[in-house]
Amino acid sequence: MQAQAPGQEQKFKPGRVSPKVRVLLVEDEVIFARAVAKRLQQAGYDCEHAATLEDGRELVRQMAPDLVLLDMRLPDGNGLDLLPELVSKGIAVISMTAYGEVTDAVYAMKLGATDYLKKPVDLEELLLAVEKAQTATQLKHHLDYSRQRNMHASEGVELLGDSPAVSSVRAQIERFAQLVSLSDAIPPTVLIQGETGTGKDVAARLLHLSCANSDRPFVHVDCASLPAELIESELFGHEKGAFTSAQASRYGLIEAAEDGTLFLDEIGELPLPLQAKLLNVLERRRVRRLGSTKEHPVQARFVAATNRDLHQMVLEGRFRSDLFYRLNVLTMHMPPLRERGDDILLLAKHFATQTERRYGLQPRPFSIEASHMIRDYQWPGNVRELKHQVSRAVLLSRESQIMSHDLALPGSLQAAPPMVTPEPGVTLESAEKVLIENALRQSNNNVSEAARQLGITRMAMRYRMERHGLKL
Fold it and tell me: CDD domains, from UniProt (predicted)?
């Protein structure tokens, strides 16, 4: 990519670059080299100069430059001889060629050079090229880091459970993965629906890991947490100067996904104006950054998730119908935890073991009462709530077993065991006694827990127990 001519962009201003950015200039024309080194140092770069390939190799070993300005014609060889070594070390390279040596410049780009400049080089043009190369390098390092982080985050990702509901989800993931991996085809979008905490993000990551390009980026975008004023820039990217704080060009998350997976979590929270832009990307498979007239191809597969009823939102005018139909190609429903039967206990034991290993605690089983409580509770927060409550119980429990009171489940949401129902016509006094007996039985005779379930203080609970002649 050839640098733009001077005046097409805002001039580079000294002092905007960290002094830690190291530039190596490999150039045999001494007067030109001195001028370049002086201008780079004025702009805040550390700059060293080598007049030959041999000296250049030595300085690369000594200073580990972030960027190399590499002349093609040198006294002891061609800059192309050094270029592959630099690229293999992850060093950005801008090649410099004399007029009429375009062939060398093209070949340099094929070998991995970031940019090229034609001599004679305008110093302001050179500074712009250096800034662009440095920005591109930082973005590449950021994407490499994100990819490594996502790979580590994907380790051990699994959908636990043997219930029919979970088995159906696994079968859908396998089938959808086959469809989105078809060669020479635009990957179909996948919409994952389900209540909060059911594991929609786990299903999306498993779908990514099951596809052919599982080594490519997995970019998770939480549409609900992105600030409204930044979400467009985050998704679509921007060019330098597109708005007040846009100090440099930046890839958007759509481009960052490359040919991997872009997971749009909580898609129902996306503002209506951005829904139109997203639909355009899905339809045309091209994205345009803010402040740019150039479009970039989009290769990523799109997976969206929501806990909202998008169809109802369409009827209410809060979600575009055309985007809904475009997203609703392949649909997967994540079952709530209360519909997964014995999977609940299996998951509880799994989360308990995870917490024990993380904190070096001795393994402890759940008591019979705690197991019943876990199995019968409705879990409105689903798997996320189960993980939180179990981890908390494991950390706070001081007994040889994890007891029911360690779980600290809300009494108003607790699914109680069969209750003793008073006979018709019974007095309020008798009904109160029955309620207290049920609460004590449900809490395994833990007075504090029973009081909390009934919404009274422990002292009031003791008073009522004495009044009704109830003893532990």
Answer: AAA (cd00009)
CA distance between the termini of the chain: 82
Owning domain of residue 463: 428-467
List 191's β-bridge partners, or say none.
304, 331
Give residues with Cβ within 8 angstroms of 156, minimum separation 6: none
Between CA 434 and CA 429 the distance in angstroms is: 9
Domain harbouring 235, CATH code:
3.40.50.300
| The domain boundary residue, chosen from 280, 306, 335 | 335
pLDDT of residue 156: 54
pLDDT, position 10: 35
Of 193, 164, 198, 160, residue with least CA distance to 380 = 198
Domain assignment present for 12: no
Report CA-CA distances (Å) from 180 to 55, 65, 175, 186, 457.
51, 41, 9, 8, 57
270/376 Cα distance (integer angstroms): 36
Are 180 and 293 in a shared domain?
yes
Query: Are 296 and 243 in the same domain?
Result: yes
392 and 437 fall within a common domain: no
Give the total number of structural domains in the chain. Answer: 4
Q: Is residue 420 part of a domain?
A: no
Residue stretches of the chain with pLDDT short of 50? 1-19, 145, 151-155, 412-420
Q: At 89, is the secondary structure helix, strand, or coil?
A: coil
pLDDT digit string, tens, across residues 148-183: 555 444 445 688 999 999 999 999 999 998 886 665
Is 8 within a domain? no
User: Using an 8 Å Cβ cutoff, are 249 and 289 in contact?
Assistant: yes
Q: Is residue 54 part of a domain?
A: yes
Share of the chain above pLDDT 70, in %: 85
pLDDT at 49: 93
Looking at the DSSP bridge assignments, the partners of residue 14 are none
Residues 6+ apart with CB under 8 A from 167: none
